[in-house]
Amino acid sequence: ESALPTISAMNICPDLVEINFKEDGIYMDHLRLLSDAAPNVQRANIAMKDTDVRVLQSCLKRWSSTLSHLILRTSDVCRMPKTSVGDILRGPPSFTVRSIDVPPSLLTEFHRLENLRYFCSRIHLETFAAALQNSLFLPSLRALCFVRDSSLWTTYRASEGEMDQCLTALRCIRDACKMRGARVEFSLTKLLN
Description:
It is a single chain. It contains 6 helices and 7 strands. By secondary structure, it is α/β, with parallel strands linked by helices. Strands 1-2-3-4-5-6-7 form a 7-stranded parallel β-sheet. The longest helix is centred in the last third of the chain and has 21 residues, at about 160-180.
């Protein structure tokens, strides 16, 4: 941290459009400094060494008008899809994120997002389902891979009422995607067990 500059780094790298921290993670202070210096990032592959959700969300908001591709891994929870990172970063606007890092309220900033691989926590399930009912939320969405984030769901057996709530939310997500003409895939194999 002593290597961080003390002078303002605002907009000193406006032409930097791609960042890739897939091998070595980045600390939040460094990410904040990078977002100040490079406000026009379009493609980001980021492994986090530490997580301060407020700093992360501030950086993503700063990039919201330009960011089209994001792979965000925190604590090795967000597993990579079989498609190569290079393919993801060159294809249509795509995010691979956890809801605990990028909650539904922050996704509203990304109007061009077409493909979303969303590792969703239980606390964000109904919020995401409700948001998806609004056509202004992720208006460009064409494909959703909805994954249960097992690290964020409790291990106790859910009551019948809780299961009904989950199933209702999942049906809403499925129906909203169908109405939009978006493909939806659920990776929730243990949710109903």
